[in-house]
Amino acid sequence: MSATQENTDESKEELDAKARQGETVVPGGTGGKSLDAQERLAEGRSKGGQRRKEQMGEEGYKEMGRKGGLSSTDRSGGERAEEEGRN
User: Fold this and answer.
1) DSSP code for 43
2) GO biological process: any one (predicted)?
3) How many helices (DSSP H) and strands (DSSP E) are in the chain?
4) Is the distance from CB of 36 to CB of 54 less than 8 angstroms?
5) Which run of H or E residues covers position 60?
6) What is the distance between the alpha carbons of residues 51 and 65, in angstroms, rounded to a whole number?
7) Tell me: the pLDDT tens digits for 56-70?
8) What are 28-67's pLDDT values in tens digits?
9) Helix or strand or coil: residue 63?
10) Under 8 Å CB-to-CB from 66, ≥6 apart: which residues?
């Protein structure tokens, strides 16, 4: 085993230990209870976003993001955008 491979294995073990303690170690892996689970969650979330973008088209996907950023507990983003004239 090379020194580089040994370091990689060790760092994966460290990341897995952190993930098992509840720390997010992979961007988009929030909620995963292990390094492997976080990697799979992140990949699935990325694919889900790409799929929605394909289904809605570029403009629809951007609109969904704009309105989502305007949502609050009492009103949806669409309602707030309409009230503020941001359609």
Assistant:
1) H
2) response to abscisic acid
3) 3, 0
4) no
5) helix 35-70
6) 15
7) 898 888 888 777 777
8) 999 999 999 999 999 999 998 899 889 989 888 888 877 7
9) helix
10) 77, 81, 86
